[in-house]
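Support request, priority: normal
Reporter: lab tech (M.K.)
Component: structure prediction queue

Hi team, I submitted a job for MurR/RpiR family transcriptional regulator from Sellimonas intestinalis yesterday, and the status page still shows it as pending. I've pasted the exact input below so you can check whether something in the sequence is tripping the parser. The sequence length should be 266 residues. Please let me know if I need to resubmit or if it's stuck on your end.
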Amino acid sequence: MVAEYMEKNPQVMSYITLRELSSSQEVTEITVLKTCQSLGFDGFNELKYEFRKNSIAKRKTDVLDEKNFYTESIPEYESEDERKFLKEVGESEVQMTAQFWEEVNLTDIFRAAGMLLSKKKIYICGRGISYLLAQCMVAYLYGCDCYASVVNTELNEEVYGVLSELNEDAVMVAVSFPDYYFMTLKLAEYAKNNHTMILAITDDPKAEVAELADLTLAAPSMTRAFLNTLSTPMFLVNLLVSAVKIRKKDKKNPQKERKINDLLES
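Reply from support: The job had stalled in the queue. We restarted it manually and it finished. Here are the results:
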């Protein structure tokens, strides 16, 4: 039963914990570990590592534990040739970022910039790695005279403090990378119900937060060595803030602003 669940849910197996898997399948953790051994793995983390490797090319999810710390170590068989493995890790990040740049929709980037500039209040929300990205985005926006507030969705006082501000005069940027923290999603649901414009920044356009968003920007975040690498998501943030700078400058030129709007609407 456990092996069948693993086979049918490869994406979930990239980030689920041993405790969560045993609970969902109503078996003991020992049963899960025995299943791993029967499949030829030394332990649960090694099994998850292989699921994650298989998911990288498909741009699937990542692994963080409930304390925001990376929990998987690299299996010994992967690090026998350290230089070779490190080169493969670096090459995979370069390829991931290059593919993102090849596929990125610049029109959507400018639309997202327009969303940020169209509202009086900007709230950028996230938790863990997503919160780090949110902090960087707030700092970068401040550098181009676009003022935003950051909300750590893991802190109840910050979540409750922003509720009264989420209305039609605001835009919420929901930064949601694995493990797709539930409170970020709940806050986005609340914002949507209060007619707040929502921009989602995540790793997968099919992520749950994207269903609530007016616009979604996606950047892959998984590598074999780091479960949520910041390289490509930061590239996305850099592009978005650059677009904000461009749009702010163009607003001083009404004729150019009209041309850009015509281009985006075409």
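The CA atoms of residues 107 and 264 lie 6 Å apart. The beta strands are 121-126, 149-152, 170-176, 197-202, 215-218. Let us know if anything else looks off. Ticket resolved.
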